[in-house]
Structures are given as structure tokens and as C-alpha cells.
Write the C-alpha cells for this entry.
Amino acid sequence: MAGTDHTKESRQGESGQGGPAIILADPQLGENIGAAARAMANFGLSELRLIRPRDGWPNDYAWKAASGADWVIEGARVCQSETEALGDLNYIYATTARPRDMIKPVMTPEAAAADMRARIAGGQKVGVLFGRERTGLENDQITLADMIIMAPVNPAFASLNLGQAVLLVGYEWYKLEAETLGDGTRQDGPCLEPGPRMPGTRPATREEVIGFFEQMESELDMSGFLYPPEKRPSMVRNIRNIFMRMSPTEQDVRTLRGVISSLVRVHKRKKQDP
Amino acid sequence: MAGTDHTKESRQGESGQGGPAIILADPQLGENIGAAARAMANFGLSELRLIRPRDGWPNDYAWKAASGADWVIEGARVCQSETEALGDLNYIYATTARPRDMIKPVMTPEAAAADMRARIAGGQKVGVLFGRERTGLENDQITLADMIIMAPVNPAFASLNLGQAVLLVGYEWYKLEAETLGDGTRQDGPCLEPGPRMPGTRPATREEVIGFFEQMESELDMSGFLYPPEKRPSMVRNIRNIFMRMSPTEQDVRTLRGVISSLVRVHKRKKQDP
């Protein structure tokens, strides 16, 4: 899915300001930090904090893997302790892949996004904490969080890498933001009424559609397709229904008229050019 | 988020059977194929098809990147053409990162998951098509799809890698499955009626649809409609898109083939019936 539009102004400023901080505890590979930064940029987040990155900081592998999300990498803050990394936050979500033996409420990324949004609107500063690549967060780290985020994942194959875990949290955050920002890629509600959107054209008027139908049916009368007469009405209805189902645009109607005119000319031409 | 529970029975059997096929067109790097397979396993999908993988198949890098999703890699089917890869499917979603100049309906991954679920419940076989890493799907490939999936992404940094794109589609699919499988926290059920129901018939397979296209285009070549040659590809795409939008049934395809055959016969008949 390539397709960054460089003419579009980045939303990292506006959303980053209001979005959750992403905190990586004890990250091991630079590649994973970079993938996390890239995922953050994909979803308009920009505040990255690193607790004790194993291979030091800055890290060339992180830059490469960030694929251009430079401002996230440049702005990353390295911390030596959980207290330093989490100290200014009002509310913290800890991500885990499996239930822990800990009495702590659990939310999906989707529910957490709504929760974050409400808290941020109320003036709170929130952050999402991700653990070390292989082992995840330690219980002591989870203890510092208010809430656990657990994504619905196939329990028999639950291993998400760090970049993917950040991706899912960022995605749910942005999805909710996009609704508010009127981004339009999202339909209102789960039911698609009256149908998915069709960019760059207008629906044909009923007059235009009927004009096309009459042209086609007149040709089909001549060709003998709408025969015998007693079956004609149901055949016409059937064919009209097929085309109506595509919700034709004005441009569609013009194209289809051209197709019909051209098809019926084929034998004329053949006759003329023996 | 480490945390695979090896005591849990994998859901890949039950869900994979019913889930969408994942089709990667012209994938370049084995790592990305592996990441896609891993994401599929995370979300209970198992049917992977590869159209012309650049570096051949099997591919060691893919195995490594799959991180244990061996059954997905082992079951991958390599195809040499779009027709071979898509032929048995009734409904196809194409993923793109930006709007294309193509009149084709667009859905979010979330809405698409609900749509897939309803179609699969109705006996349809569905698939999601992903394009080459840097450039995405070509227009001719998108034309073969019924619907476009576009994830809400920061427009100024929209580049998702292949594994991440598969991850988002799989995640939304599994989220909906997980609700059904009993952890349902969601109150408002998804809309299970994507478009009008078409009683007494079944959606055309892609093979049937392509057969119709080829018949029509061959007639339009003879009639001179698809002229000049340099414009032919875009004209063909445009016409195919118009018909794809109706999600043709098997019966529609037969009717439309009859209409085309009849129209091109029109002048022959005139001569026979004085």
C-alpha cells in the first residue's frame, strides 16, 4: 500500500499533540523501534519514549526502519527508568498478549482508543506502554499501568511483533480521530447506507438511464433478442435490473451508449468493407 | 506482545476455512510474504495465494519471517496469472493506500470485514488482493475487484508495508469473528446485508466474468470501439469497472453474453427476415 501524498499536510502536529505517548520499555532491536515509529507516523502519533534501549540511541537501524518517519525518531526521548518515562502521565495503558495473573481491567485496542480520547478531551495526558520484544512487559511494569490493552488475536498464534502491536493501537486511535476529522474514508456506522461512496462523478438522472435503456431495447428488438412478445416485459425488467444494480453514473451511461452503438455497427462495417 | 499459548488449539482450521483468501500480487521480498503469513496466522487466516513471486517459491526469507506460521507458508499456492489466482472467487476486495481514478466503491477494513462475513455466510468465496510492495496494485488488477479497501491512514504518511496492510485486514476480520465466538462486548451488531440479496442465483465466479469481458472486448475490437490502440487499456478498464460494480451473478453473465451476441447479430438477421 504505497501512496503517501506529499502535498497533504501531515497530521502529526495536531493529532500528536493530543494523542497518546508511545512508550517502549527495554526495546532490543533498532528495527523494531523504527517500525514502531513508522506505525506511529501512519496514524498521526509523534510522541515516542524509550526506556533503556538495549543498543543505545540514536540507532541507525531504527532510522532505516522508520522509512521516513524522521520526526518521530528525532523527537524520541530516552529514559533510564519507568518513573522518568511515565512520571508526567495521568493514565497509562499496558499492552499484553495474554491475560496476566493480575487484577487489572482489560480493554481491546478499540475500546481503549475511545477511552483515551475521552481522557485527553478531559485534559489528561495518557500513554501506552509496550514491553520487550520476546517477553513482553514485566509484571512490575504492568503494575504501573491503570489498564491493560489486549488485542483479539488467535490464541494459538498470538505473537505480534513490537511494530505490529504499536500499529494496532495507532490504527484504532486514528480510526476514531478520522471520524471526528471528517476524513470520509469511514462510513457512518456499521451499516453502509445507502452504499459505498463513489468518488469523482455524479449519479445519472433517471432520464439519462431510461434513454440508455430505450436505445438498448430498441436494438434488442431489432436483433430478435426480446422475443416472443409475451416474454418481452419480463426480459426487459430483468435486463434493466442488472444495469440498475450498478447505480450508473452519468459517465457510465455515456460509455454504455457508445458500447451499444458500436456493437450494432459491427456488421454494417463488415458489409461495407468486403 | 509475546504470548502464544501452545496449549490452545489453533483457530486456523475453523476460521481459515471460512475466512477470506489473501492474494499477494507480484510480491518482491520473501520477508514481506513471511510477515503477511505471520499476520494471517495471528488472525486465524490460512489461505495464501502468490501471483508471480519475484524471487521464486519456496523462499527461505519467507519461512524465517513467518516466525512459525508454517502451515500458512506450506499451504501457499503460487499462480502465474490473475485469472488463475482469482478464478474461483465470487467477490474480491482490492487494497489501495490512496484513491485511484477509478469508479469503484471504497470501504474501510472494518466495514469490509462485516461485508466478507455476510458473503461467506451466504456461501460465497471471497479474497483480498494486495499489490507489489512499492507501487501497490496496478489499475488492471484493481479492475478485477468488486470493492476497494482503504484503511484510514495519516494522508501525509500513508505508506503501510505489505505485512502491516495484511495485518489490518486480518485484525478487523478476526475482531468480528472473536465477537461471534463469544467474547462479544459489542452491542450493535454489524449489518449483515451487504447490498440486495439475489435469490435463485449465485455470484458469478471471476472466471465467468472474465469470459464475458473477453467476449465483449473482442466484439468491441472488431467494431472499432477500442481505438486507438494506446487508449485501449484505459477504455477496457473503464468498461470492466462499470460491469464489476453490479457484482454480476452467474445468471447476469449469461444474460449479458446473450445481449452482446444478439446485438452483433442484428444486421445479419435483418437480411434473413425481409
Observations:
- Residues 20 and 127 of chain B are 5 Å apart (CA to CA).
- The longest strand of chain B covers residues 21-25.
- The two ends of chain B are 79 Å apart (CA to CA).
- The mean pLDDT of chain B is 84.
